[in-house]
Design brief:
With 320 residues, the chain is of the alpha/beta class. The protein has ten helices and eight strands. It is elongated. The structure holds uridine-5'-diphosphate (UDP) and magnesium ion (MG).
């Protein structure tokens, strides 16, 4: 098959401030791409329902360079769906997913290609330092990856690695077979296996603009990560129930003891309140966790497409 050697996949959500500099960096990187890649590359921009000038800027790039391709979503489907769409359409022997804000420097891709040529199928980039990100983001991210790793038995998700990674074509084809709705892409890549390795880099600050991951999206992302790969929270609910039950039993026995052998003490209001509170909190928590998984089952049985492409540019005459 005559596909390109290297595909770059870049999700774009309201990055108009960055696109000119991004294009400049990508072009200079691609121009002196060595190790047999040469002219054989494509860049897939996935426009995830941007509402600023991003679409116009990308179109202008695609007109001038046919190897710059664009998938435009009908609305904002989120970072993970944008990555999914890029992987679905990338034709390269090696596919690299990277953020558009230049926090994932294109130059690191050279190191990834070296490891790929050595025979690795997945090369993820571990951020040894993160510049220009709030202490809150760094702290929650560090805690999250450690919690996630502790909850996963068999699958080893690398700590401190984002979605910046190279995947060989066999891995990309395997990823295409995973059509679940709640997508934690970095976990899914770890799950498929193959030969994986890491390169390290210092993550620079965002080139311009604000993060497109406000707290609400980050939280959603963390919950997806944990519930997609682990049923530990479900089991936790069970243990919580058992512990609450044990405490309630001891409390109950004590209440009976006091009533029988105490000096006419009426078992107190406090005891009842504590037991009621304990019991109902355990119940509520369990229901909440169950609800999270039941909601997921509902989402999956709907079998909706994962994203909707409104328009595509430079992909040739292919009709899907
Ligand atoms: N992004 C996206 N859809 C979204 C949010 C973000 O495609 O709903 C893209 C964004 O344009 C960027 C990448 O995902 O290329 C990572 O986002 P960002 O840099 O804002 O995240 P952070 O680095 O702050 O975690
Ligand atoms: Mg960023």
């Amino acid at each position: 098959m005559g596909g390109p050697t290297l595909s770059l996949v870049l999700p774009i959500f309201n990055e108009a401030e960055i696109i000119p500099e991004l294009a400049r960096r990508l072009k200079s990187f691609l121009a002196d791409l060595g190790s047999g890649v040469g002219e054989s590359w494509e860049v897939i921009f996935v426009n995830d329902g941007s509402t600023d000038e991003s679409a116009t800027l990308l179109q202008a790039l695609a007109v001038a360079e046919p190897r710059f391709k664009i998938l435009s979503f009908a609305r904002n489907f989120g970072h993970q769906m944008a990555i999914t769409a890029g992987l679905d359409r990338a034709e390269g022997d090696a596919v690299v997913v990277m953020d558009a804000d230049l926090q994932d420097p294109p130059e690191v891709v050279n190191e990834m290609l070296v490891r790929w040529r050595e025979g690795f199928d997945v090369v993820f980039a571990i951020r040894s330092k993160r510049h220009g990100e709030s202490w809150f983001k760094k702290l929650t991210a560090a805690a999250f990856y450690r919690l996630l790793r502790a909850m996963l038995g068999g699958v080893s998700i690398p700590a401190d690695a984002g979605d910046f990674r190279l995947m060989s074509r066999p891995v990309v084809l395997t990823m295409r077979a995973l059509r679940e709705q709640h997508r934690f892409v970095r976990g899914m890549v770890a799950w498929v296996g193959f030969r994986q390795t890491a390169v390290r880099y210092e993550r620079p600050a965002r080139f311009a603009g604000e993060t497109k991951y406000p707290f609400r999206k980050m939280l959603r992302f963390a919950i997806d990560g944990i519930t997609s790969f682990s049923t530990v929270p479900l089991r936790m609910a069970l243990w919580l129930g058992v512990v609450a039950g044990g405490v309630a039993l001891i409390g109950g026995l004590w209440a009976v003891y006091v009533k029988l052998f105490g000096e006419g003490v009426v078992p107190g209001w406090t005891t009842i309140m504590i037991l009621v509170a304990l019991g109902s909190s355990a119940q509520l928590m369990m229901t909440g966790i169950l609800g999270e998984y039941v909601g997921r089952i509902y989402e999956e049985v709907k079998r909706r497409p994962l994203y909707i492409v409104r328009e595509e540019t430079n992909f040739g005459d292919r009709r899907g």
